[in-house]
Write a structure and sequence with these properties.
This protein has helices spanning 16-25, 43-46, 73-92, 127-130, 156-169, 181-197, 217-228, 233-240, 333-350; strands at 55-62, 104-110, 116-119, 121-123, 142-146, 173-179, 202-203, 241-247, 260-261, 268-270, 276-278, 285-286, 325-331, 353-355, 358-365, 368-374. By secondary structure, it is an alpha+beta fold. It has one domain (16-387). The strands form five sheets. It has a seven-stranded mixed β-sheet, with helices on both faces. Strands 4-5-7 form a three-stranded antiparallel β-sheet. Strand 14 (353-355) and strand 15 (358-365) form a beta hairpin. Helix 6 packs across helix 7 (217-228).
Length: 399
């Protein structure tokens, strides 16, 4: 799915393969075997003290054009189809320039010489190939780019036009952080190293951007917040992310070159009892190449079930539910929007609102609700970008 934003423009009659691509898109795949980069920060940045606001980081959280139902894979596919049609209406009436069937997250850093432009992780392609992968599409790697780029995948002009149209029409929500100069430097350093590493060519749901694996759109936005230490990951992940187990019977790599999907660091989830499950680092996910899973088939009426069989991975013993299902966390623009709108309503009524360990104020920019956290007293996180905790439900700098 095109980082909850697609290079494709859907019509009501969009093929199921394209719709599954949309679902895979806001979180970004990478190459079959992901590569982790090294990104230590400068020593002078690590020792920098907090100061007055030097600029702002803004996340533009774009909801899907109509609500999505994540209760089953089939319900998700059906509601993405409906959202595709609704997105075309928004574009036709001038309320948006891009349809964003499952939502999107753009962001920009405005800090003078330490800024980065309006951007985000995006990607797409291979929709016909992925149409019989079932929920495996969430694990597939697609060609990626940054929204700031003007190339075959990037779409800088369309992104600028889309944000302008949505600010005027109210079809997004802004999440703003006022930041000090040390934070500006930390965030720009991450952006620049992510781009220089070429990680953006890997677009998929299971990749963690701060580890330079690639990314989807929502985790790229959340990842920038995380590398700065602006909010605790242990606080925002449960609120901003869909957390699932995906059973083995729902995963195929139809006609793929390999009977697996490459490892990504978002193979983590928290179950209903509060236990966190983490897939073994570096272990690929088995996925048969000649067992197509057709859209609307019965096996897609649940994320897990009796048809799931144990994964056969030489030398690896999987515990508990991971014996037959993979843990998966996907940061969701719709959840980010719902959270921000709830905070906005409370802050508008009371003058401020407390959420995710921060105090927020509310205002309106043209037709858009904006929540703001004055984080100028927050010192930037100092750990290397790729040295974060494996568990997405713990703070990234937790031991």
């Amino acid at each position: 799915m095109r980082a909850f934003h697609l290079a494709l423009r859907f019509s009501v009659a969009a093929p199921a393969g394209a719709l599954w691509l949309a679902i895979a898109g806001c979180s970004a795949p990478a190459s079959e075997v992901s590569a982790r980069g090294s990104a230590a920060i400068d020593a002078d940045e690590a020792g920098a003290a907090p100061s007055a606001p030097a600029g702002s980081l803004v996340l533009y959280a774009i909801p899907p054009s109509s609500p999505l139902d994540w209760s089953t894979p089939n319900h998700l596919l059906d509601t993405v189809a409906a959202s595709a049609a609704a997105g075309e209406v928004l574009v036709a009436e001038g309320s948006a320039a891009l349809s964003h069937e499952i939502g999107h997250v753009n962001l920009e850093l405005d800090c003078g010489s330490t800024s980065f432009p309006l951007t985000g992780q995006t990607g797409g392609g291979s929709s016909l190939k992925s149409g019989a992968d079932g929920a495996g599409v969430l694990l597939r790697d697609f060609p990626g780019a940054m929204n700031e780029m003007d190339n075959a995948i990037g779409d800088n002009a369309d992104t600028v036009a889309d944000i302008a149209a949505r600010v005027a029409s109210g079809n997004l929500t802004e999440i703003r952080f006022l930041v000090n100069q040390a934070m500006c430097t930390r965030l720009k350093t991450f952006h620049d190293q992510y781009v220089a590493s070429g990680a953006y060519v890997n677009y998929g749901s299971l990749y963690r951007p701060r580890r330079f694996e690639g990314a989807g759109c929502a985790i790229f936005g959340a990842g920038v917040v995380d590398v700065g230490g602006l909010l605790g990951r242990s606080l925002f992940t449960p609120v901003w992310a869909q957390t699932l187990f995906i059973g083995s019977a729902r995963i195929a790599n139809t006609l793929g070159a390999n009977a697996y999907y490459g490892y990504g660091s978002n193979l983590v989830t928290r179950d209903a009892s509060g236990v966190d499950w983490i897939w073994p680092a570096g272990v690929n996910v088995p996925a048969p190449t000649f067992s197509p899973i057709l859209p609307e088939s019965g096996v897609m009426d649940a994320w897990t079930g009796p048809s799931d069989e144990p994964f056969a991975i030489p030398g690896v013993t999987l515990a508990g539910p991971m014996a037959t299902a993979i843990p998966f966390t996907l940061y969701d623009p719709a959840l980010m929007v719902a959270w921000a709108e709830g905070v906005w309503a409370q802050a508008q009524a009371q003058g401020s609102a407390s959420s995710l360990g921060a105090t927020w104020t509310a205002d309106t920019v043209q037709a858009v609700h904006r929540v703001t956290y004055d984080a100028s007293s927050v010192a930037p996180q100092t750990i290397a970008f790729d040295a974060d905790n494996d568990d997405l439900f713990l703070d990234s700098d937790a031991p």
